[in-house]
Amino acid sequence: MDPSARPGWIPASWFEAAANLTWATPTALPPVSTAELKNHDFELVQAEVKQGEALLDVRLVDKRSGKPVPDAVVFARRIDMAPDGMPTMTAPIEEMPSPGPGVYRFKTNLSMEGGWQLSLAAKVQGETGTVQARLLLKAVP
Question: What is the pTM of this model?
Answer without folding.
Answer: 0.73
